[in-house]
Each structure stands twice: as structure tokens, then as C-alpha cells.
Fold each of these.
Amino acid sequence: MSKNNTEGQIKVNAYSGFKANERPLSFSMGDLKVEIVKVIDRWTDPDRDFFRVQGDDGRLYILSWDRGKDTWSIDRPDKC
């Protein structure tokens, strides 16, 4: 299963199995679409789930999902 969420310009397609938005599968911003190759790390705080991921464009991204608002954001793109 997947679910699309938006916050500003980002749309995330995420796998939802046991719980909603277990892991991101891909995301898009405007004309850019990035498939997630690997989830490198994940962590939580009281309100958000964070995912450090590698995209098919060779870059690393930190995506976060706000559980209360059901919205996604990119917190920091990094170069590999």
C-alpha cells in the first residue's frame, strides 16, 4: 500500500503496512522525481518520523513525516 502526502512542494509515496507511512518509496518536488534506493537510517521524536535515504539520483536526503499533521518535508539534502 502507499499513500501520497504533501507539505509545500513535496509529495511522498510511502509504504504503509503495519502502520501508516512505514517507509518512503519515492518523492517528488515540482518536475523532480526521486526513487528511494535505500533507507539508510530511521529515528523518531515525539511528533515525527525521520528517514535518511539514498535516492536514485545518487544523493542522500533526510525526509520527515509529521504524524499529527500527516505531512512530509525534506529537512536536508546531502551529496553522497
Amino acid sequence: MQRRTFIKVGVAGTLCALSGRAWALMYYPRPSGKKWAVLYGTWCGSSRDAAVWISEGLEGIADVFDIREKPDLKGYDHLVLGSSIRNYRIHPLLKEYIEENRIWLKGKVRGVWAVCHNLGKPVGPSQVTRYIDGQFLKVLDLPRIPSRVFLGRITKALLEDEVRPLMEHLEDCDYLKRSDCLAFGREILYSIR
């Protein structure tokens, strides 16, 4: 590299870094003064993906936990809870966790979501009432907070042996949209600002 080109590149890089436009740093999460966590329950991975994408919508400031890890979230300031739906119910481990910890959870939950297949039909008010109001807000005795029901997916190869015959008539499909989850994460974040 010629000396003149080297100096030009060096000056341009320095100016770029000083101007706040350092492209390589653009994708790092922004620091937050509060600790955020997204907790999910899943059988086949739909809620895991939704949780990660919701965290991205929260500008990457949230840690993501599977309920099977049995995380201790008491040190977190803000929580977002979600679950896949099976037989019209949230994941039993998440339900148990909510019931056992509802007193301290009540002041920290900032958003809830559910992922259901819904036979591929659009989500309507009955799904919101059944999954959000009936299984999250009612149990936690929460006021209306950001909430969403997402269409999920079916991957028969990931189903447990006892469940596979019940879903044999359904085709593998994927209705979960990253853009919807990102938008929901942003909605939660902006609702507390």
C-alpha cells in the first residue's frame, strides 16, 4: 500500500469512528441501565425463536432463558414471558413458574406472548382472550400490557412420540415471522420509555 493511500484510509477511518458512524459497532446491543430477560416455554422451538427475535426487537438488551433451565430472574428489572401453546394451554413448566412466583413477577412483567399454530388461520380476538388474558394476565393479575399471539409452526420430526399421532393430519409449516417478533420487542421497549 502506498504511503498516501495509507494516510487517507487512516484519516477516513478515524473520522468515521469519531462521527459515531463506526459501521462495525452498529450491530452491538445498546447498554441499558436496567436488566431485561425474556423467558419462554417451548416444545419444538417456535417460542425459542420468537424469544430471540423479541430480544433483538428490545435492541438486544435482554437475556433469553428457556424455562427448562429454571433460571433465577429475581435480579432482573423487566421481564417478557411467552410460551408455545399445546392443547389450548401454555407450557406447564412456565405455568408452574408463574403461579409459584406471581407476587414478585407482577411488578416486573412488561410483555407477554404466545405462539400457536391455529390451523394456519389468522389470529383473532378469541386467541388473545384464551391465551393472553386467560393464561398470563389473569394468573398474574396484570393490567393490559403489550401482548401478542403469533402464528407458529409445525415440524413433525421434533414432536414427541405421544403427540405425533395427534398431529399426523397436519403438514409441516412455518408461519412464525421474525419481523412480527421484532416489532413486538420494539413495542414493549417503547411502552416503558
Amino acid sequence: MAHALVVDDDRSIRLTLEKLLCSEGYAAASASNGHEAIEAIRAGGLDVVLLDLGLPQMDGIEVLAAAQAVRDVPPIIVITAREDMHSIIRAVQLGAYDYLVKPLELDRLKLVVRRAVQSREASRTLQEFVSRATQDFQVGNIVGRSAPMRELYMTIGAVSTSRTAVLIEGESGTGKELVAKAIHYSSPDRERPFIAVNCTALSRELLESELFGHVRGAFTGAIGDKIGRFELAGSGTLFLDEIAEIPFELQAKLLRVLQERTFERVGDGRPVALSARVIAATHRDLAAMVRAGQFREDLYYRLKVMEISLPPLRQRMEDIPLLVESLLRKINFDVHKRVTQVSPEALDVLRNYHWPGNVRELENALTRAVVLATGTVLEANLLPVGRSMPAPTAELPQRIAPLRDVERLHIASTLTHTGWNKRRACALLEISRPTLDRKIEEYSLTRDTEEPS
């Protein structure tokens, strides 16, 4: 049960609001002055505070200022009879969650309290992971000593001190989200939330709701209010993975949000301030998509204030031994094994393979080998890659197949290989289920589709 505190010097208002909150399922207490309010806030255990500005001796503005020194301050909703701009601006500057003007609209009051409590619950859930995440995603845990990686470390160090937008580009499996987390957890805002959104995993309607939130009744199925990822991120970091997959019509809305630093929940016309730093990532060539008219040029330049290009693993093969050592520690812990050594033959195999799936493919290959290993040494025969799989050469065939044909054949082959198990096919192709369904429809694939010989 959520706990609420009503702060007002008018006894009748305190009793009325306490009764209302109790009827809504909250445990309600009250304070008649600012000093009692600060004592209750410092004692902890509160999920929301309703604070009247017009208090005697210590007014609501002073209470807000004093509350900022409390480590875990709950959302404070200001109630005021003064509808003057100065009071409202000052209250917001001091961290007020929202403000309500007397006489109170009870439906509006209940809605704001409910949102504040939801925000509080989300914040608590996120903070449980901050300590562990800070350890897991320091720059030092991105493995590599090659020249491209040293340059990457310097870039991370530079961008982590600012709050500018960052665009991370690189092939699938190169660690784009890991870099985004390293930027966040190396920044002064490391104690604030890091919120990730996979833009390929949701339909347009769900993506808009996921990003901006919605209010009850905004669309069919919206049975309650939902806080969006922009709002959950607060003044932390919002990571938009696979930004190239955002529908074109939604790109205009995202651009407006980044320009104006405000957004609106779906079905709600009131603006909400955007405080989060935005980091976007993609494995696609956004510049080429802009030239092809598939991605908005103005949004592209808004996202790439700072640009980071991650090197594929084949361009930093000298990092393979370090990566293997680091990944083995993680894999041994995950699967409860003690494979601590790699045979020279196995290391040669790993060094001579071209790794089209990059570090993710390397981790998968090592995981399979560790699971199958019977001793402490990882042998070459356990690896799902081998010397018979040479790296691609610079020679081009006389006829280059169109990309569309290559993609169609690859998807059809994968579906045949998995017996049309779409879940396994999505995992192998590293795409979402909606994307796979769209490709199947686009290429008119069926179980009877024959692979070209």
C-alpha cells in the first residue's frame, strides 16, 4: 500500500484529502505545518506528498527547498491558491512533481497522485539496479587494447562529461548497448536511470506509447495510465536501440521532442519536460537511408551531435585473446563450469575466423564450447567454427545479386533450417518477431517456398 502525506494548515482540508486518499487505497497521514512535513519526509516511507504552499511560519516553498537535502525524497505535489507564475516556476525549480490550484478538481487530484506513486515505484525499481550496473558497465569492462579500442575509450571519456545526443553506429554484435551504458555509468548522472528501448520489437502504436506513455482511454486497450520511457529516464539516459527502424511518420514526432525538449503522453495534450540525454544506435547506414529518403535528414543530424563508430571484431583481431579470457570468466559463472584454459589449436581457430556476428558470435561460440567441455581446457573440436570457414576475400563475383534477393534467400533458408520455428529464426537472424512477419509477407514466403539452387 502506498503512503501519502497531506500538508495543510486547514484542518477541514486535511481531513477531506485524507478521506479521499484512503478511499483510493492509500495509507494517508497529515501534517499541519512545514516543520512537521520535513520531519515526516526525513523519516522516510512516503510515496507521495500533497503540499500546500500557503503554510504559516515555514511556507511550502521553504519545505520544498529543505526536502531537496533528503536523500530519497518522494514526489511532492504542490497545492496552491496562488496561481501566480513566480510561485509555480519556483516550485518546479525546487523539484515539485506537479501543482494543483485551489479549488481542487478531485478527478484531476486522483490522477496526479496515481501518476506520482507510479513514478515513485518505477524509480525505486530502477535504483535497486544502479549499484550493480555501475560496476558492470564501467569503461574498463569493455575489453580491448587495439588502436581502434583505445580511440573508443577516449571518445567515451569525452562524451560522458556532456549531455549531448550521441549516435552509435556499428555492425550487429559489436556492443553498441555496452558502449551506451559505459557512457552513462561514466558520467556525472550515473546514479540516474538508464532506460533502453528496442525500436524493432514494437509496432508503431506500441512504440509511441512505450516512448511517451499514454493516459487511460487514449486508444483501445488503454485501461490505465502508463508512464513512458522518456519520463522514466528522468534526467538520466534514454537509449534508443536500432533507431533506423522507427516508422517514418513517428520520426517527425521524435524530432520535435528533441528540438523542443518536451513531449506529450498519447491522449494527453499537456507537455512534459524532457530531461534525459538521448543515445541512439543502429547497425544500418543512416546516411545512406537519408539519401534514399528512408530516414529524416533533420532527425539524423539532431541525433548525431556526437558520433561513435564501433569497429567490427575482424578489424581488431589482436583483441581476441583478451576477449576470450574475459568472456570465459563470465560464461563459467553463468553455466557453473571451470574451463580456465584454451588450447593453442582452439585459439588459432578463433584468430583465423572472420566473425561476421562480432563479439556476440564469439560469446555464443565460447558458451557452446564451455557447455560441451568435460575438463578445464577448451579444445578446438568443441568450437562451432573452424579453419574450413575462411574469411571473405576482396575478389567479387562476376554477378552481384541484389540485396533484396540475398535477404529473401537468407530468411527463407533460416526458416527452412528451423522448420519454420519463428522464435528460433528470430534468434538466429537477430530480428524481432514483427520484423520477421513483415519480411515473410513482403517476400511472399511460405513453407513451400523453394530455395534457389
